[in-house]
Amino acid sequence: MERRCIKIGKNNKDRILELNENKSLSFEDWSALLSEWTEEDLEFSCSIARSSALETFGKKVFFRGIIEFTNICKNDCFYCGIRNSNKNLVRYRLTKEEILACCNEGYHLGYRTFVLQGGEDPYFNDDIMEDIVSSIRHAYPDCAITLSLGERDKGSYQRLFDAGADRYLLRHETADSCHYSQLHPAEMTLENRINCLKDLKDIGFQTGCGMMVGSPFQTTELLAKDMMFLADFKPHMVGMGPFIPHKDTPFRDRSAGSAELTLFLLSLTRIMLPDVLLPATTALGTLRGDGRIKGILAGCNVIMPNLSPTAIRKKYQLYDNKAGTDTDAEESLNILKTQVREIGYEMSSVRGDYIERYGK
Ligand code: SF4
User: Fold this and answer.
1) pTM
2) What is the domain range of residue 164?
3) Is the pLDDT of residue 7 over 80?
4) What is the Å distance from ligand 1's center to 347 Cα?
5) Nearest CA to ligand 1 atom 7
6) Which ligand 1 atom sits closest to the C-alpha of 79?
7) What is the position in ligand 1's atom list of the atom closest to the CA of 119?
8) Ligand 1 pocket, residue 75 CB under 6 Å
9) Domain assignment present for 323
10) How many domains does the chain have?
11) Most exposed: 102, 154, 261, 303, by fewest CB within 10 Å?
């Protein structure tokens, strides 16, 4: 009797299971997975990601307080609402005392990580930043300090680390240099961004990268490249949110990224990097009201509410209609705590550092 060998192609469920098993996929499989996926694939991926996060972190969500301490930036990224060319914006800088007052309020609300986020503002040179970081370090020895200040040289990163900073977030935005040049002015390069990320890791920072989902000119293949970059770089944190246009940027008429695709990619990131600190971003919460909660159910384990003074929040809009700009620090936190509790999770008042459990 003639025996026929029928080759059955992989489906997305197979690819998700393979990712779970091997913590990597080929470029072809990433491209296939991301080009055609269904609601069912999303649910399947979220359920594996959620189990993985539960195994590693339990039903705890780490809360980090973001202090947006300057909206002045020398750069002109095409997607960003606080880009240098935007003249429809009142610029501000917080003083060291104002930053410390935010930390004080945050500490009493239960935060044990402060995230200092700002544009690339030349005023905050190494001397000034070193002073701010070491003041926070001395006042709050039990707290983690995360910085998100953009590109600096290695010596500068080292000084900030030595002053007491623990973590650094620097999104790579896209792992393709041509796409990078479509999102940034010519003087900014992917090469420099990646070198900064490598420097941060070398120094010992818990290092975070990540990309915008649905940014202009992004294709499935470019997202596949991003996922392969994450697999290779092995960041300690991944910040991944949907692109949302800002009215005062060249991308004002572009469509926002998809919340569902963002959730799919978050769940795949959790499956691929089980230990990673993975925030459900404010951008996701801006795109859909339950975005951050859906993010937790897709494997996220971090939420980063705003600790900035209410008076300046509207001046730090990287994109339009940012969530949480009308409520003060305590109110924003309470709303999120309630939402988290409603799905059976709870806020954890610990530093929540990266701990490598897999891959050893
Ligand atoms: S994305 Fe960052 S570096 Fe670029 S303009 Fe905005 S704040 Fe500046």
Assistant:
1) 0.94
2) 24-348
3) no
4) 30
5) 119
6) 1
7) 7
8) yes
9) yes
10) 1
11) 154
